Amino acid sequence: MEQIIIQTENQNQRLDKFLCERHKDFSRSHLQSLIEKGEVLVNGKIVKAGYSLKIGDEVCLDLKPPKPLEAIPQEVDFDIIFEDDDLIVINKPQGLVVHPCQSTKDGTLVNGLLNRIGNLSGINGVLRPGIVHRLDKDTAGLMIVAKNDFSHKALSQMIKDKEVKRKYLALLSGVVWENQGKIETFLARDKKDRKKYAVSNEGRKAISLFEVKRRFSNATLVEFSLITGRTHQIRVHSAYIGHPVVGDPIYGRAEKDLKGQLLFSYSLDFVHPRTQKSMHFQLPLPDYFENFISKLRPFEE
């Protein structure tokens, strides 16, 4: 058990930030998890990660390293749209987590890829082999996976240079009156809820372009093109303009007939890193998305 008495130089500092600076071998998320579980006490009491330290506070913790995770081959359901020696394009189903983490240790896309493909690029380590970009658990659709380090480096650079064009279809709550537009903000983790992201001047620039495809009486089908690829970007931006994605339990509200938000990565364009051939992939909306839309009343001007 470690006991720390807070000195002048650490007063008014957040508890989680203080512990991160003191224990650099541990991730912030792991330390925050210990705080949430009550394994970090301040003056003998359980406090929140954002607790502001005061001079003389006694911080007690029993620092245990997180149990190492290992991605093992497992049978997982997903569709391969394209595959060659360098890369794979897949259709990720809704509800599938991309890679193992402390909350989801197996049954992820990575586990399924290791089972069906075997060797993948090793740049992201043992937990995220081949993963060039992510989709949220309940966001379905097209993803690129790298099978070797050459394609991984090339694709990562192409994404950074905005040379990979990704388009999404989202059903937004309410009627969006503008036919098209641009949403440009800064996004950062929500200070009140670390699982969420929020518009904040302290964050990173996020730019989304949108175009209305179809209006209904109380919803709008919108195509989004991403200029940047921040975590939860479309979901946060949609809520920011007052039209959260239908079924989004975090930034809007859950729907009893849905298992998550109606957001689908339906179009993907990029140049193959080795052959230099233009690649284009496009998918129809999944059944659960189409079925929900079919029950909506049409928009009447």
At a glance:
The N and C termini lie far apart (68 Å). The longest helix is centred in the middle third of the chain and has 12 residues. With 301 residues, the protein is of the alpha+beta class.
Q: Give the rounded overall mean pLDDT.
A: 91
The portion of residues assigned to helices is 10-25%
Order of helices and strands: EHHEEEEEHEHEEEEEHEEH
Number of strands: 14
What is the count of helical runs?
Answer: 6
Low-confidence stretches: none
3D shape: globular
**In terms of structural class, how would the helical and strand content be classed?**
alpha+beta
Roughly how many Å is the radius of gyration? 22 Å
CATH C-level class of the largest domain is Alpha Beta
- How would you sum up the major sheet? 10 strands, mixed
CATH-defined fold name of the largest domain: Pseudouridine synthase
In CATH terms, the superfamily of the largest domain is Pseudouridine synthase
CATH architecture of the largest domain: 2-Layer Sandwich
In percent, how much strand structure appears in the residues?
25-35%
The structural domain count equals 3
Termini gap: 68 Å
